Amino acid sequence: MWLLSMFISTAFATDMSGIWHSNDATVFFIPFMRDGDIPLVIKKDKSEAVLWGRWSMEKETLSISVPNGESWVLSRGAKEDHLFFQKGNEQLEVQRQSSFPKRPSDGIWTTESQGQFIPFIVDQKVYVIHQTPSQKTKLYKGKQPKGKENSFRFKAKKKCSVAFSEKTPDNATVTCGQYIHNWERYYKPVDVPQLDLNGTWVFEDTLFHIELDRFQWKLANLEYSNLIHEYKGKWAAGSMGTKFYLEKTGIPTVVGTYSPEAPDQIILTIEGKMMIFTRR
C-alpha cells in the first residue's frame, strides 16, 4: 500500500502578470506569464527600461537579466498579491498594484521582416516592446483612445496606428506613415495553470503514483504487476503544466499530458503505446 504525503489543495502557479510596486519605489510592468522568456518594463523615478526574464513554473521564480550582470529574481511571496524581489544581496517586498484586463492586443505579434511586437496598456497609455530580428529591444509609447478597445497609436520612427479585427482576432493591420503591414499573433497568453495531480492513477493493472509539492516533482512511479519503475518527473518547456516527461536511466522516456479541462485523466505514452490513466 502506498502512503503519500498528500498536498490536498489544487496548486495554483503564482501569477506575476500585472503592475507591481516594491518598497524601494521600483515599478514592474509584467504583461503576461509564459513558461520561458518574458519581457517586462522596469520604472524607477522617471526612467523606464525593458528587461527580459525567464519564468520557471517549477520554482515559481522570474530570473531577470540585468545589463550590469547583477542577479535579480522575483519569487512567490509569503501572502497573496505579494512577491519577493531579490536584488543582488538585497531582498525587497513587492506588492501588486493592479492586474491587466484581457484585451484584443494581448500577446506576442510578429511580422515577416521586423521581428516581434509586444503591446500592453496601462489605462490609456500604450507600451510597445519591439524585439528586432537582430535581438535588439526597443520601447515605444502611445495612446489608446477611450472606448476603442480594437485600436491604439504609438510612435516609432513614424507615427503608427494599429487596428485589430473581431473577425480575424489573430491578425492586426498596422499603418506607419504611408506604409501598411500586418501583425500576426505568435503567442496568445493563457492563464497560469491549476494542477491537481497528486495521488494514484490507474490504467488496467498499471498504477501511476504522483506526489508534487506545488510544482516540484517529489515522486513519479509506475507500478506494474511484477515491478516498479521510479522516475524523475520533469515539466516540458513552454507547456504551462500540460506536458511532462518521466525519465529513468536505461529505459525510454515516458511522455505525459494533462488538461485542466479533463482533470480526472492523464495520458502517458510509453514506447509508442498511449495509455489513459484515470484517478483512483
Helix count equals 0
What is the residue-mean pLDDT, rounded to a whole number? 91
Q: In angstroms, what separates the terminal alpha carbons?
A: 13 Å
Strand content: over 45%
Supply the number of structural domains.
Answer: 3
Strand order of the largest sheet: 2-3-4-5-6-7-8-9
The share of residues in helices is under 10%
Instruction: Write down the oligomeric state.
Output: single chain
Query: What low-confidence regions span 5 or more consecutive residues with pLDDT below 50?
Result: 1-9
Provide a compact summary of the structure.
The protein has 280 residues and is mainly β. The protein is 0% helix and 59% strand.
Supply database-style keywords.
280 residues, mainly beta, 3 domains, eight-stranded antiparallel barrel, 26 strands, 0% helix
Task: Write a structural description.
The chain is mainly β and 280 residues long. The chain folds into three domains: 16-98; 108-187; 194-279. 0% of the residues lie in helices and 59% in strands. The protein contains no helices and 26 strands. It has strands at 11-12, 18-22, 26-30, 37-44, 47-56, 61-65, 71-76, 82-87, 90-98, 108-110, 116-122, 125-131, 137-143, 151-155, 159-164, 171-176, 179-187, 194-195, 199-203, 206-213, 216-223, 228-235, 243-248, 251-258, 265-270, 273-279. The strands form four sheets. The chain has an eight-stranded antiparallel barrel with strand order 2-3-4-5-6-7-8-9. An eight-stranded antiparallel barrel has the order 10-11-12-13-14-15-16-17. The chain has an eight-stranded antiparallel barrel with strand order 19-20-21-22-23-24-25-26. It is globular, with a radius of gyration of 22 Å. The two termini are 13 Å apart. The model is unreliable at 1-9 (pLDDT under 50).
